[in-house]
Structure formats: structure tokens, C-alpha cells
Design a protein that fits this description.
This protein is α+β, with helices and mostly antiparallel strands and 843 residues long. Helix 28 (740-754) links the parallel strand 10 (724-732) and strand 11 (759-766). Helix 11 (222-236) runs antiparallel to helix 12 and helix 20 packs antiparallel against helix 21. The chain is elongated. The chain crosses the membrane at residues 6-24, 44-63, 83-102, 123-145, 151-170, 190-213, 219-238, 272-288, 309-327, 347-367, 379-397, 403-421, 433-454, 481-504. Keywords: Cell membrane, Membrane, Transmembrane, Transmembrane helix. This is Integral membrane protein. Its main location: membrane.
């Protein structure tokens, strides 16, 4: 059945193409042109509207078909499919076969073939009942007027008049089979609909005759002629009665006193306004419906491609028009003397006023930026801007230039493309990307500088023309016009700032959630955390929570920078929902024009991200100490063993302190931290910083000297399980001896091993080799330099060598970013983010 439906749809499309071509061949363009030229524009419009109105009674048939079916169909759907079916049947009825086939196609979504065929058969019996009634009316007219012109065609009227009573008798005395359920009310509605269908045909045909000022001997004689021609057309089964109807009407109109040339135009106009124009609309509806089916079959891909293409073309046109208008406004002499510019400038907009022209150019560029970002706010502004520009351009063409239909069609197509692209606008806001801001600044500042230079040079030429020569390309008509344009540039700056603020500013609750320590703690307690989850208690990041039935399942920690959301590490929580959480987070971020960047993320997550369109590169390794096998025995750590023994002899003691901590203890740690920092400023995001609330959330390891004074400390970062632990802040005072941190580490390893932990995370060793090979991509090598020197500024080098002596396993960490996004911009934004001074979002 699927194959049969496909072949049928393809056959109908071929038929449509064939009929359009055949009609085009049969139509005499010169005669139609002559007939139309004699009509005023309002008469042509009236014929168009009445032609469509004459078709509308036929829509009753499809409403009756759906009435006989058990399932209900939307009114708009029935109207559209009815228009397609009836206008197609008008052109190529094939004795009702095409109409029946199309109805079977459109109403087979819910109902069985048997029910559909039964409903169509009931309606089909009454399709020409109205014509039969007009045969009876025509007989009355013929005998009343004693019209001999049609006396030899009476057999057609008599035969046609018999159809109505026969069908009425058949349906009234037989209610079995396909006629079951055909009540008198339903039959009456079908007969009435058919009558008004043919009444519309006859009335519209006579109306065209009056518009052409045709002069038949008696207009009443036109009705029998029209009915006889229609009967002949129906009996011949020729699609739409083409040929048979036309020849008969032209010949018989001449017999009743109508000029033959007028008769030809009369029939052609009838065909044009009753058949062809409604059929053209039906073709549009048919293609639209088939397109929707094809789009649904391919899961929306064709529609998305077309909308993206329309949005891409519209964006290009807005930028193209804006730039051309700027060139024409800032260097008018160059624009008017450059052949290539003159070739392309007609495909933009015209504004006579210099100020308005410059402002409008930047409005187009501004809405073009919003269109490129697919912000919903930009669509209405784009339509308004295009409407104003098009109306002004048409006004200019009408009053100051030669009106061009070619230009009118071009502008209409631009508006059509804009309207078709509306589905591509889906974002709530536009993120302030470096690319968009840089391009806007470059365009505006470049224009401002060029325009200012042109003004200065023109001023010098006016006063020092004998000493200073200005290139012709930079000549300006007058300083007054230049000054008006300069004011336009100032206003354009305000317009651009306003537009960008309008696109940027939106408060989105999904992506503006501060860290809630209680929510974080509940997730960690129930599902466990990871190596970064404890950093949530710093409150210098935001969190995205994926929920199921209102309950937090997965949490991401991130920070915003430009158009990026930089996620630290991996999400934590219920990993059974990780896939859904990633998809939801990406969709919510995309609605606000943000792209996700995962910083220091693990290999396991990279695979999932790669499937979702991410590129990645390695940015370091994370070292793990095997606590089960850790020992100071042997040659590898003999110097550290000696160091530990030395500190023990000197009275240094290790202690693992548990929260809550009193104020005196915190003050001692603060003094150590300040001495360790010196004049440096603490960084945040991927690192902890000294914060009392944060330090109160976990144990702190300290080393005291012989006088019991703390000289070094390290804060622990629990991961929500009893297998792996880690440290964050590592600080020592100025009085601490060299090597004291090794003593603290070794003591921690031994203590955590006693408590049953299996691994100790020593943290990241950045720059494990991205872009270091001569075979690396240029972009990777540049990114490596940015990343490396960005870190060097803040003393991150040498960490791997220090940790190497303890680490038994290195696990790679990656930066993942969306494909087609600039790696260089991404690295610069990440480096900028991690080097920002530490700052809490909430106290």
C-alpha cells in the first residue's frame, strides 16, 4: 500500500505538471492581454475574487464526505484538502476518478478504505445533480423564449434533466450498501451544494460577459448554452471539458450575436479566473501538503534545511544591504563611479536622506546580527525593518526613478524568504560572542574612521585646494550633507547599542541558578560526588540541575564567559540520567545562544560529548596515588623518607582536624594563607580559595612545629565515597622549613590509607602535550601557546615533576568544545576565566 500511495502521489504530480504545460500552450496570451487591458484594475480584482467565490460551494462535498466518516477532521484541514480536490477535478476530472482518488488519499489517516470509498460514493452520486436541475431550468427558458438556436441540442437538456429525479428515487427507496445512512437531510444538503456550485459557474460566466460589454440578443439565452456545453463536457469525460466546452460556447455565442473575438476572450477569461487561478492555489496547497508528509517521513529534516537556508540567505542579504548602503553614504563619489558597485547596488534599498540612510544601514546590520543568532526577538524587527526599507524603496522608484517590476519581484522574494525563515528563529536571547561584538565594532569604527577622514579631506580641499589634492573617490557633494551623515553615525551607534542590548538582555531562570549548598549536599549524600563536587561550596560558580519529578538528579558546575558556559570537570549525581541531563542542558543553553565548554573533563564523558558534536583536545593529566600500595620503603622515596624522619626529630607533628573549627583556628590558617600568597591574588573556578564557609565543609590537615604552632595546612576535598579523596588548598607560612609539604602529603597518604581509602587524587598537571607535535594542526599549536603562556603567568609550571614521585596513575583530562567554534577563541576565553580573581556569587 505504501508503494501504491507513493506511485499515486508521483502520478498526480506528473499530471499537475502536464496540465499546467498543456493549459499554457492552449492559452492565447495576446488575446488575454487584450481582454485584460480593456479592464480596469478593480474589474480584474473583482473577477479574481468572484472566480474564487464561485468555487467555494464545491467545498461542501468534502464536509459531507467527512460527515459520513466516523472520525472527525479539523475544519482548516478539510477546507485545504477540499480546495485541492475540487480545483484539480475542475481541470482534470476524468469522470470523478481524480477527485475520488485524492479524497481517498487525504482521508485515509484514520478511517478504513471501505468507509472512505462508501462516503465518497454517496457524495459522488450528487456531484452533477445541480447541473441536472439547471437542465430543467434551461428547458423552461428555451420553451419560454422559443429559442431556436438551441432547439437541436434539446436532447442534451432532456437527458441531463433525467439524472436528478433518477438519483432522488434511487436514494429514497434504497438504503442498503453504500447508500446506508444517506438521510433526506444529507441528500438535501448535497443537492443544495451542487445547485449552488453550478449556479456559481453560470453566474460568474454571465458576469464576465457584462465586464466585456458583450451584446447577446438575450442574456437569458446564455444559460441554456452554458448548461448544454457543460453537459457535453461531462459526458465527454475530457478533463475540465477542455476543448468541447470551449468550442461549443464560442460557436453558439456567435450565433446569439456576440462578436467572435469577444467570445474567445470571454471563454478564456472564464477559464483563467474560474479554473486556472483557483487551480494554481490548489497546486500550492497540494505541494505544501505533500511537503509536510515528506518532511514528517524524514523527521523534519527537509523543513529544517529550508528554514536554515532561508535564514542564511536573509542574514547575508541584511549584511550585504547594510554594507552597500554604508559605502554609498560614506564615499558617494566612489560608489557612483565604480562599475561593480553600480551593478550590485540596485539589489538593496534606497534612501535619499544621508542621516536616515546611515542609520538604516546599521539597523540592517544590527538585525542581521540577531538573525544570524536566530533570536526570536530579531524576527519581528527584521520584518519591520524590511517593510520600511521596501516601502521607501518603492516610493523612491515611483517618484524619483523608473519603476521596475523586476525590482518589485526581487523585494517581494526577500520578504517571502524572511517570512519562510521564521521557524529558524527559536532562541530566547543572543549571547555576547566575541565574534559578533568584534565584527560590529570593526564595521562601525571602520566606517566612523573612513567617514571622518573623508570629511577632513573635503574640508581641506575647500580651503586649501591649491595645496591639497583630494582623490575623486573621496569627494563629497557638500559639507552640509557630510555633517548630516556624521550625525547619522552618532545616532547609529546608539541604535546599535540599543539593538544589541535588546538581543542580549533576558533573564533566564534556567541558567541563572546560584549554588545552593543544601541541594548540593543532598545529591552528594544520595548519589555521590566526584573530584570537583566539593568546589560547589565556594559559591563562585553557578549550577545547572537536571530534575526528574521535581527531584535533583544531576548537577553541573559552570561559569559564563562571553557566549560560553564553561563546565568544570564532570557533572555529579545520579549517572543513570547523565545522557538526558546532557541533552537537556545543551538544549537550554542553546535557547540562550550559549555553547558548552567542558574544562578538565574525563575520557568517559568525552565519548558522550563527541557523539553530541563536540571536538576536544587533551589539556593535562590528573595524578592518582595508590594508597593500598604506598610505602616509603625502597630507593624511589628514600630522600622523602629521610625528610619525614628529620621533621619528626625536630618536633613537627601532623594532625587531621575535623570541622567545625573555632575562630582562633581559622585565624591561624588565614595568617598562613596570607603569608603564602604574598602579593598574589587568589584565583577561583577550578581551584579553591581561602573561604571560611568552604573550609568548614571538610577536614583540614595541618603540620605544627615544636611550639604547637601551625606552619602548613591542606584542605581535603571529599568525593562522596570511601574510595578516593583529594586536597585543594596547600599553604605554608614563611616560618615553615623547606620540604614541609612533602611531610604533610606523606602523612596524609598514611592516614587516608588507615581510614580505608584506596586512592588519593593529587590534582592536575596542566599542559601534557596538546599541539607540541610538528604534525599538529596550526590552530592546535597556537592554542597550546595561548594556554601554556597563560598558565606561566600564574606559576602553574613544574607541577608534574613534583607530583611524579608520588603518582602511580595518570588519567588524561580534556577540554571539549562545540564543533565549528573557534578553538583559539575558546582557549582564550577559558584562560581568561581561570585567571580571574576569586569572587563569591553569594555570601
Amino acid at each position: 500500500m505504501g508503494l501504491i500511495k507513493g506511485v499515486f502521489i508521483f502520478s498526480v504530480l506528473l499530471f499537475v505538471i502536464h496540465e499546467v504545460g498543456r493549459i499554457a500552450k492552449d492559452v492565447n496570451v495576446s488575446k488575454i492581454s487584450q481582454g485584460l487591458s480593456s479592464q480596469s484594475w478593480w474589474q480584474v480584482l473583482l473577477m479574481l475574487l468572484l472566480g474564487f467565490a464561485a468555487v467555494t460551494p464545491m467545498l461542501n462535498y468534502d464536509f459531507m464526505v467527512t460527515k459520513f466518516l466516523p472520525d472527525k477532521y479539523p475544519v482548516l484541514y478539510v477546507l485545504k484538502t477540499s480546495w485541492i480536490t475540487n480545483t484539480f477535478t475542475n481541470i482534470g476530472g476524468f469522470g470523478g476518478v481524480l477527485g475520488a482518488s485524492l479524497r481517498a488519499l487525504f482521508y485515509n489517516k484514520k478511517d478504513s478504505q471501505k468507509k472512505i470509498v462508501g462516503a465518497i460514493a454517496k457524495v459522488a452520486l450528487f456531484l452533477v445533480s445541480g447541473l441536472s436541475l439547471f437542465c430543467i431550468i434551461s428547458l423552461v427558458i428555451v420553451f419560454s423564449l422559443k429559442d431556436r438556436a438551441v432547439s437541436h441540442y434539446l436532447i442534451w437538456l432532456v437527458g441531463g434533466s433525467l439524472y436528478f429525479p433518477l438519483v432522488l428515487l434511487l436514494t429514497r427507496f434504497n438504503d442498503k450498501g453504500i447508500l446506508k445512512g444517506l438521510t433526506l437531510a444529507n441528500a438535501s444538503r448535497l443537492i443544495t451544494g451542487s445547485f449552488f456550485e453550478w449556479f456559481g459557474c453560470v453566474s460568474f460566466f454571465i458576469f464576465i460577459g457584462t465586464m466585456l460589454h458583450a451584446s447577446p440578443q438575450d442574456f437569458w439565452s446564455i444559460i441554456p448554452l452554458f448548461v448544454i456545453a457543460s453537459v457535453i463536457g461531462e459526458v465527454s469525460l475530457v478533463p475540465g471539458g477542455l476543448g468541447s466546452f470551449d468550442v461549443f460556447m464560442i460557436m453558439e455565442l456567435a450565433l446569439v450575436g456576440v462578436d467572435k473575438n469577444i467570445a474567445v476572450v470571454w471563454v478564456l477569461l472564464y477559464r483563467l479566473f474560474y479554473y486556472i487561478f483557483p487551480f494554481a492555489l490548489g497546486v500550492f496547497f497540494f505541494i505544501h501538503d505533500m511537503g509536510k508528509r515528506f518532511n514528517a517521513y524524514l523527521q523534519g529534516l527537509p523543513k529544517n534545511i529550508l528554514q536554515r537556508l532561508a535564514q542564511f540567505l536573509l542574514t547575508g542579504f541584511l549584511f550585504f544591504s547594510g554594507v552597500l548602503m554604508l559605502i554609498n553614504s560614506t564615499t558617494p563619489n566612489f560608489a557612483m563611479t565604480n562599475k561593480y558597485f553600480l551593478d550590485v547596488y540596485p539589489y538593496t534599498f534606497y534612501f535619499l536622506n544621508q542621516l536616515i540612510s546611515i542609520v538604516m544601514a546599521f539597523i540592517l546590520i544590527g538585525v542581521g546580527i540577531g538573525t544570524a543568532a536566530r533570536v526570536k526577538k530579531a524576527f519581528s524587527l527584521t520584518i519591520i525593518a524590511l517593510t520600511i526599507a521596501i516601502l521607501n524603496t518603492l516610493r523612491w522608484l515611483v517618484f524619483y526613478g523608473e519603476f521596475s517590476w523586476k525590482m518589485f519581484v526581487f523585494l517581494a522574494l526577500i520578504m517571502l524568504v524572511a517570512w519562510f525563515s521564521r521557524g529558524a528563529y527559536y532562541r530566547e536571547r543572543m549571547a555576547p560572542s566575541w565574534g559578533a561584538i568584534s565584527w560590529t565594532l570593526f564595521t562601525y569604527l571602520g566606517t566612523f574612521i573612513v567617514y571622518t577622514v573623508v570629511g577632513v579631506l573635503n574640508q581641506k580641499m575647500l580651503h586649501l585646494h591649491h595645496k591639497f589634492i583630494v582623490p575623486n573617490a573621496l569627494f563629497f557633494p557638500s559639507q552640509k550633507i557630510w555633517l548630516m551623515g556624521f550625525v547619522g553615525l552618532i545616532l547609529a551607534a546608539l541604535v546599535l547599542i540599543g539593538l544589541l542590548h535588546y538581543f542580549f538582555y533576558t533573564t533566564n531562570p534556567r541558567l541563572n541558578i546560584s549554588v545552593d549548598s543544601e541541594r548540593v549536599r543532598r545529591v552528594i549524600d544520595e548519589y555521590g560526588g566526584n573530584e570537583i563536587s566539593h568546589l560547589a561550596y565556594l559559591f563562585d560558580k553557578q549550577m545547572y540541575c537536571y530534575q526528574v519529578d521535581g527531584k535533583d538528579q544531576v548537577i553541573f558546575l559552570y561559569k559564563k564567559t562571553a557566549d560560553k558556559l564553561v563546565i568544570l570537570g564532570e557533572p555529579f549525581g545520579n549517572m543513570d540520567h547523565l545522557d538526558d541531563a546532557l541533552t537537556k542542558f545543551m538544549n537550554d543553553a542553546d535557547l540562550d545562544d550559549y555553547s558548552l565548554v567542558f574544562y578538565e573533563t574525563a575520557e568517559s564523558l568525552i565519548i558522550k560529548l563527541h557523539e553530541r558534536g563536540f571536538d576536544f583536545f587533551k589539556n593535562g593529566e590528573e595524578g592518582y596515588v595508590d594508597l593500598k600500595n604506598f610505602t616509603l620503603a625502597g630507593k624511589k622515596l628514600r630522600s622523602e623518607r629521610a625528610l619525614v624522619n628529620k621533621f619528626k626529630r625536630q618536633g613537627y607533628q601532623f594532625e587531621l582536624c575535623q570541622p567545625p573549627f573555632d575562630k582562633q583556628f581559622m585565624a591561624e590558617l588565614k595568617n598562613i594563607s596570607d603569608e603564602w600568597l604574598g602579593h598574589e591574588i587568589e584565583k577561583g573556578f577550578s581551584l579553591g580559595f581561602f573561604d571560611e564557609f568552604y573550609l568548614q565543609q571538610a577536614s583540614i590537615a595541618i603540620v605544627r612545629d615544636h611550639s604547637n604552632k601551625p606552619v602548613a595546612f591542606a584542605s581535603l576535598m571529599p568525593q562522596g565515597d570511601r574510595k578516593t579523596t583529594s586536597i585543594d588548598l596547600m599553604r605554608s607560612s614563611d616560618q615553615a622549613p623547606s620540604g614541609i609539604m612533602d611531610h604533610l602529603f606523606i602523612s596524609l597518604f598514611e592516614e587516608m590509607s588507615k581510614q580505608g581509602y584506596e586512592k588519593f587524587n593529587l590534582g592536575m598537571a596542566p599542559l601534557a602535550g596538546v599541539g607540541s607535535s610538528r604534525f599538529s594542526f596550526i590552530e592546535e599549536r597556537i592554542s597550546h601557546l595561548i594556554y601554556e603562556y597563560g598558565y606561566k603567568l600564574y606559576g602553574f609550571q613544574g607541577l608534574r615533576n613534583y607530583k611524579e614521585k608520588y603518582v602511580s596513575t595518570w588519567k588524561p583530562k580534556y577540554i571539549a568544545y562545540r564543533k565549528k567554534r573557534s578553538m583559539i577563541f575558546t582557549i582564550m576565553q577559558v584562560v581568561d576565566l581561570i585567571n580571574l580573581p576569586a569572587r563569591k556569587n553569594r555570601q
